[in-house]
């Protein structure tokens, strides 16, 4: 009987070990989950920290005209009609208008010498709208033609309007991979330093003062059109062309 009792005492107590093992596994899983959540939150915060706010832009903005001379442009300065498109790089309707009509518009009106066409930021959807706009300004300051290349390719790579996608990391890689012939180091510094955020905010303030409240919107010789249809734009241009000097 003593041997039997000794054997019982020396046999491992599996009933106690299993709960302890499960508790250890649970602690490890919780620790791993907390780590990944912290990493994700940290990465998201870092991305947001690199995005500009209009409230951070210093300098007084005075609306005293459309300032055509500061905008990316196409066409002859001697053209009778000046058309401005107000747009946001995150706007799906802007992407669709560009894909559907811009080439036709350039062929019909810009290349023919009838219209000088300008792009003006109305970055309003989210903070990465402002950053994408400031990237466009930085490219324009180096090369007007490269700005239009940036516009076409960025619309082609446009992300979900409801999500932050035009982050500093995304734009730096996008421009490096897609826009050749500019000083990439200068561009990177301009983007990181928000060098042209004043210009983006100035565009926004000017557009708002002239009645722009969404995108895309068009202005023909200083008159804001009620809709964004190609038919409406074409009719306004033809009317302006037929006006007496």
UniProtKB/TrEMBL annotation:
A Pfam match: Thioredoxin_4
InterPro entries: Thioredoxin-like_fold (IPR012336), Thioredoxin-like_sf (IPR036249), Thioredoxin_domain (IPR013766)
Any GO MF annotation of the entry: isomerase activity
Keyword set, alphabetical order: Disulfide bond, Isomerase, Oxidoreductase, Redox-active center, Signal
Ranges for domain Thioredoxin: 41-242
Signal peptide segment: none
Protein family according to the UniProt entry: Belongs to the thioredoxin family. DsbA subfamily.
PANTHER family: DISULFIDE BOND FORMATION PROTEIN D, GLUTATHIONE S-TRANSFERASE KAPPA
Name by which UniProt lists this protein: Protein-disulfide isomerase
UniProt source species: Paenibacillus silagei
